[in-house]
């Protein structure tokens, strides 16, 4: 065989491999509004940068079928996003429904090992029907090997999962072990057991979308961090997320010149917080006005909306933002918002991202459902995350900071570096009305005019405690600032803290209140 013939054979093999499961199945994929595995990779990565590995690994069970050479149901390799290296695997639904076999698992494991050894993010594009039933326990073993790599890579390199089709059974646990999950609306689902099994076991009628669709997980379970309409837009959001992140835990996030003045003052910040302490406002309005060019990538935007978390830049450098949201549940902290903020703070700490906290909360949400649901344990996760974090931590008390929630939201007592407050800050054990009802119970019981007496006592309490100056006098608040100067004060604080060197006591790992 001549060299030309050998090269022709190589090209034919590659052409056949790129057909995936064949043109008919590719057409069906497109009819469902979905891209193929390779189309997704090329839409995600910088143009012309994808280098594929293991494309000639044969579909399990076809090793001796010389007339039908097919690649396994995943495409793997590496490329670049904004010029920086990333590793990627993309399940191919056109080949045996993207199901996991031993060769497919080995391809994914190889790419994850390369990502970990080379200190670069790994992105999984998931579109598959779970374990390949014909393989039995071998496929389950492959899942276990993948899960192990997810755990070993956790906190070392960013791991991102993009669910773009069905992901069921054991296949859901690898995404759940990664840092962020993206889902495409209308075309992706995640669940452990499907609607048919649920119907048989519990009698419940539920559709695939209701059970495990993007919005179900983005708004109800909290499994999904980003729900995006359309695959192209979803992949662009993945690129946007990566622009905020370092390649690994030994590097700082990339600097991006935004052109926004670091000392920019904003007069509108004086008017966002209402005069009436009980009136809501949108904490996002403060965030947008403080960060560089109003660019804030919110994480978990549809879940636990009484807490805001997300990524932004301050003077070109990435910060993680946590804030209470007075528009929802008056900004009080419940089980879901505790979990949401705690995991985000721990992610930021793992990847050298300073944490900026905006506080306006009346406390933890009361009620039997919260207590029986374990608010004590879940609230402790938030305390644990802030106390454990060694990255720079800056906290701004905007309005209310009451009770244990004051401590939990990045207080000085949880090793925050700089704690500032607006003049509207209220820092106390509880709000004026309930405090007066407890402290002055006897006086109110004997007062001739209860309401007038209560109103007078409430005003006295406000003057004494519902302000930031008592905490400032004790050094728990480092300064009370003009709201218009918030951006400049934060940027100067972060600049001061850039060389921060803090450690936790030597240990194998702490025992997080799971």
Total beta strands? 17
* The CATH C-level class name of the largest domain: Alpha Beta
* Count of distinct structural domains: 3
Low-confidence stretches are: none
Helix content: 25-40%
> What's the Cα radius of gyration?
26 Å
Distance between the termini: 63 Å
The CATH topology annotation of the largest domain reads as: 2-enoyl-CoA Hydratase, Chain A, domain 1
Content of β-strand: 15-25%
- Average predicted confidence as pLDDT: 92
The backbone outline, from C-alpha atoms, is elongated
CATH architecture of the largest domain: Alpha-Beta Complex
Query: Structural class, from helix and strand content?
Result: alpha/beta
Quick structural summary:
The chain has 21 helices and 17 strands. The chain has helices at residues 3-18, 23-31, 37-44, 102-118, 137-153, 173-177, 195-202, 208-212, 214-221, 231-242, 269-272, 283-290, 335-350, 368-373, 375-388, 403-408, 432-439, 441-446, 450-465, 469-473, 486-496, and strands spanning 51-53, 74-81, 84-91, 122-126, 159-163, 166-168, 180-184, 189-191, 226-228, 296-299, 307-314, 317-324, 355-361, 393-402, 418-421, 426-428, 479-480. Helix 5 (137-153) links the parallel strand 4 and strand 5.
Please tell me about this protein's structure.
The chain has 514 residues and is an alpha/beta fold. 40% of the residues lie in helices and 17% in strands. The chain is built from 21 helices and 17 strands. Strands 10, 11, 12, 13, 14, 15, 16 and 17 form an eight-stranded mixed beta sheet that branches. Strands 1-2-3-4-5-7-9 form a seven-stranded mixed beta sheet, with helices on both faces. Strands 6-8 form a two-stranded parallel sheet. Helix 17 (432-439) packs across helix 19 (450-465). The radius of gyration is 26 Å and the shape is elongated.
């Amino acid at each position: 065989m001549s060299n030309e013939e050998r090269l022709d054979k190589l090209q034919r093999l590659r052409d056949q491999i790129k057909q995936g499961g064949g043109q008919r199945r590719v057409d069906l994929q497109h009819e469902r509004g979905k891209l193929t595995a390779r189309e997704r990779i090329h839409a995600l990565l910088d143009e012309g940068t994808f280098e594929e590995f293991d494309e000639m690994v044969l579909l399990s069970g076809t090793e001796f079928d010389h007339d039908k050479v097919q690649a396994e149901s995943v495409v793997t390799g590496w490329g670049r996003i904004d010029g920086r290296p990333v590793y990627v695997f993309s399940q191919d639904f056109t080949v045996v429904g993207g199901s996991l076999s031993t060769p497919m698992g080995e391809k994914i494991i190889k790419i994850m090992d390369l990502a970990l050894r080379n200190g670069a993010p790994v992105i999984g594009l998931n579109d598959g029907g779970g374990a390949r039933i014909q393989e039995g326990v071998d496929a389950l073993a492959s899942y276990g090997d993948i899960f192990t790599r997810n755990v070993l890579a956790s906190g070392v390199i960013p791991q991102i999962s993009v669910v773009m089709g069905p992901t069921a059974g054991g296949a859901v646990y690898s995404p759940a072990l990664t840092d962020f999950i993206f889902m495409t609306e209308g075309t992706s689902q995640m669940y452990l057991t499907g609607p048919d099994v649920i119907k048989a076991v519990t009698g419940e009628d539920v559709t695939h979308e209701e059970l495990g669709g993007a919005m179900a997980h983005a708004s109800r379970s909290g499994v999904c961090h980003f729900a995006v309409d359309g695959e192209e837009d979803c992949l662009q959001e993945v690129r946007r997320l990566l622009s905020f992140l370092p390649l690994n835990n030994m590097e700082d996030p990339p600097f991006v010149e935004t052109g926004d003045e670091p000392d920019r003052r904003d007069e509108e910040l004086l008017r966002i917080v209402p005069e009436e302490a009980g009136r809501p406002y949108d904490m996002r309005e403060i965030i947008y006005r403080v960060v560089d060019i109003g660019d804030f990538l919110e994480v978990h935007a549809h879940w636990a909306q009484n807490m805001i978390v997300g990524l932004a830049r301050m003077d070109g450098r990435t910060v993680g933002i946590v804030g209470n949201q007075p528009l929802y549940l008056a900004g009080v902290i419940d089980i879901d918002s505790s979990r949401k903020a705690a995991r985000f703070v721990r992610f930021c700490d793992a990847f050298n991202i300073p944490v900026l906290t905006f506080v306006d909360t009346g406390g933890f949400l009361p009620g039997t459902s919260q207590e029986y649901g374990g608010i004590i344990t879940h609230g402790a996760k938030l305390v644990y995350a802030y106390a454990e974090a060694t990255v720079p931590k800056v906290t701004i008390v905007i309005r209310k900071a009451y009770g244990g929630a004051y401590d939990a939201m990045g207080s000085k007592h949880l090793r925050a570096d700089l704690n500032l407050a607006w003049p509207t800050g209220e820092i106390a054990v509880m709000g004026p009305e309930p405090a007066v009802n407890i402290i002055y119970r006897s006086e109110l019981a004997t007062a001739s005019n209860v309401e007038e007496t209560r109103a007078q006592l409430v005003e006295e309490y406000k003057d004494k405690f519902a302000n930031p100056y008592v905490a400032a006098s004790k050094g728990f608040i480092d300064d009370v600032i003009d709201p218009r100067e918030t951006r400049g004060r934060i940027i100067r604080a972060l600049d001061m803290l850039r060389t921060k060197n803090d450690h936790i006591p030597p240990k194998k790992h702490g025992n997080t209140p799971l």
